[in-house]
UniProtKB/TrEMBL annotation, chain A:
InterPro entries: MetI-like, MetI-like_sf, UgpAE/MalFG_permease. It holds the Pfam family BPD_transp_1. This is Sugar ABC transporter permease. It is a multi-pass membrane protein. Keywords: Cell membrane, Membrane, Transmembrane, Transmembrane helix, Transport. The keyword Metal-binding does not apply. The chain crosses the membrane at residues 12-33, 65-91, 103-120, 140-167, 188-209, 258-275.
UniProtKB/TrEMBL annotation, chain B:
The keyword Signal applies. Residues 1-21 form the signal peptide. The lineage of its organism: Bacteria, Bacillati, Bacillota, Clostridia, Eubacteriales. Keywords: Signal. Residues 26-41 have a biased composition (Low complexity). The keyword Cell division does not apply. It holds the Pfam family SBP_bac_8. Residues 26-45 are annotated as: Disordered. InterPro entries: Bact_solute-bd_prot1, SBP. It comes from the Bacteria. SUPFAM superfamilies: Periplasmic binding protein-like II (SSF53850). This is ABC transporter substrate-binding protein. It comes from Gemmiger gallinarum.
Amino acid sequence: MQKAIKKYWPVFVLPTLAAFIIGFIWPFLWGIYLSFCQFTTVQDVTFVGLSNYAKIWIDDTFTHAFFFTAAFTVVSVVLINAFGFGLALLLTRKLRGTNIFRTVFFMPNLIGGIVLGYIWKTLLDGVLTLLSKPLLSLDATYGFWGLIILMCWQQIGYMMIIYIAGLQNVPLDLIEAARIDGASNGQILFRVKIPMVMPSFTICLFLTLTNSFKLFDQNLSLTAGEPAKASQMLALNIYDTFYARSGAQWKGIGQAKAVVFFLLVVVIALVQLRFTRSKEVQQ
Amino acid sequence: MKAKRILALTIASAMAVSLLAGCGSTSSTSTGDSSTSTTTKETSDTPAAAGEVYYLNFKPEQDKDWQALAATYTEQTGVPVTVVTAAQGQYETQLMSEMAKSDAPTLFQVNGPVGLANWKDYCYDLSGTELYSHLTSDSFALKDGDTVPAIAYVIETYGIIYNKALLQKAGYSAEDITNFESLKKVADDIQARKDELGVKGAFTSAGMDSSSDWRFKTHLANLPIYYEYKADGITSTDAIKGTYLDNYKQIFDLYITDSTCEPTLLASKTANDATAEFVNGEAVFYQNGTWEYNNISSIGDENLGMLPIYIGAEGEENQGLCTGSENYWCVNKNASEEDIQATIDFLTWVITSDEGRKSMSQDMGFVTPFDTFTGEYAASNPLLEDADAYIAAGKTPVDWCFSTMPSENWKNGVGSALTAYAAGTGTWDDVVTAFVDGWATEYQLANG
C-alpha cells in the first residue's frame, strides 16, 4: 500500500489541488490584480495602476470602520474567551447534567449569522422600545453592544468546547501532585491548568480574533451600518463601496480596500499566533 | 497488488469525475441560489432555433408571469427563454456576477440615467428596432448621443393612496384635498378623531426599515427635487440647492405625526407593516404606487383612490401624480448575434402578440409606453384610472427626477438622517446636510 501511494500520489493529490487552485488560488490572484483595475464585470477590466489605493481614503468611512472593528474585536475577544473558558471550567467539574449544558451552550453556533442577526434585532428592538430608548439602527452605541451580545451568544459555546477538550487533557497526576504540595485552587488554575491549555488559547484567540475582524453577516442583518455608517465594520464597508456607489471606479476601490483588509487580518493573526505560541509549554 | 492498483485508480478517477460533475452542476444551478426563481430552460424536441434569450428580471412581483410568458414563447417558437429574477434589492449585485459569466443575460434592466452610466458599455443600440418604433413618446427611451441603449417598458405612478370609505366616514372626499394645507387639515382632523373613526392614524407608519424607506428617501424626496429642477429649468444637476427642503420637512412631519405609531418606532417598521395597516383599515392614507395594487386590492376597488403628494409648493393645485419609469430594458451588446436577434424578437413578440400583451397588461398590470397596448390591452385598476383622470383633468404629472439622484449611497445617507430625525436622535439640519452636501460630494465621487 505504501508503495502504491508513493507511486500514485498525483492521482490522489491532483483533484483536490486542482479544486484548490480553481476555487482559491486563482480567484485570490485575480482579486489582487483587480484591485489595480477599473471594471464593471470581472472579465472586462482596464489597468489603472495604484489610483484605486490612493482613493481608499477619499472619505473617512474606511478609517471609521477600522476603528469600530478594532474596538469590537478587542471587546468581543476578551468577553468570548473569558466566558468560554469560565464555562469550560464549570462544565469539567463532575456536575449533574454536564452534557445537557454543553449541548445547550453549543447550539447557538449552529444557526446562521444572518438569521441570528434578524432574530436579535427583533429581540433587542423590543427591549429598547420597552425602555423607551432609541432603537438599534438609531444609536451606534447600542448597535455596538448589540453586536457584542450577539457574537458572545453565538461564539461562547464553540470556544467552550475547545477549552473543555484542552482541560480534559491536563494530566490528573499533575493536579494531584500540585494539591499534595499544598497549592490552592487559584494556584492550580493559574500555575497548572492555564499553562497546560495554552494550545487551546492559541486556537481560540485566533478564531475569535479573525472572526470578529471579518464579521459581516451579523453586522449586515443586525444594524446594516446604521445610523449613517456609524456601526459599519470593515467587511460591510467594502461591500458598500462595491455596490452602493455608482460609477465604474468604485468596484476597483472596493477591491483595493479588500486587499488592504486581507493584509490587516493576516498581520494581526500572525502577531497573535507568534505571541501565544511562545507561551505554550511542552507537556 | 494489481487489483489494488486498479482499485486505487478507479476510486481516484471517480473522485475526479465527481469533482468535475460538481463544477458542472453548480454552474447550471447557481442562477437559483440567490434569486427567487427557477429557470425554465427548454430542452424540447422542437428544432433549436438560433439564439437564446436570458432575461434577468428586476421585479419579483411579476416573476411568475414572466416565467409563464417565457414558457409560452418557447412552446410557440422553440426559442429557449430563461427568466431569472433577482432577489429584492440584489439586482445590481446579481447583474454584476451574471454579466461576468460566459452565459450572460441577453436582456437586463437599468433603473435610469444613473444606472445606465454603469452599464452603457454593455448596451446594444436599440434605435433601429421595432420595439423602439412602437414607443409612444421618445421620452420613454434613454439616449446616449444618437443611440438608444435602453427603453422603458412600464410606466408607473405613485402618490398618496387613500381609503375612500374611511375618508367618507370622516366626512371628507378627495375633492376637499387640493393642496398641502387642505391635506394637513384633513389628516390632522382624522388623527384627532381616530378613536371615533376606528383608525389608528391618518397615515400608515412611515417605516424606515430598508423594505420601506425608499418611499421617503427616494420617492418623497423626488418632489423637492422636481420643484427645484422646474424652478431652475433644468433636468439634472451636479449640486442640489435644497430650495424646497422646508416643504420636504412639512410633508415628512405630517407623515410621522399623523401616523399609526410613535415616530420613535419608525426605524423598525417595514413595508409589510404599512400595507397591513392600510388593508386592515387602520389608516386612511398610504404613500405608495400603482405597483402596490395587488397587495391592497382586498379593501375593494371602489374604496381605492390616489391623491397627488402635496408639499406646499406654489401652484401645486395643478400638480398631478408622480408618473415615470425606472424599469428600462437593455439588450446585452456582448451577446452573440443570434442571441441579440432572438432577444429583440422576443421583446417584439411580448409587445405585439396577444399572449404577450395580455400578460403584460392584465397579469402583470403594467401600463406600458408602447402604442400596441390599446383597447382591451389597456391595463386597468382604480389606481391607474385615477392616474389617467388627473391627466385628463389637465394636471401636470410630476416627473421621476429621482433617477438623477447621484448614487445609492446618497439615498442611504438621506434615509439614515430621516430615520434619526423621526426618532428624535438627529435634527433636520442633518437631513439638509445629507441632502445638499451629500449630493455634491456623491456627484463628485461618482463622476470625478
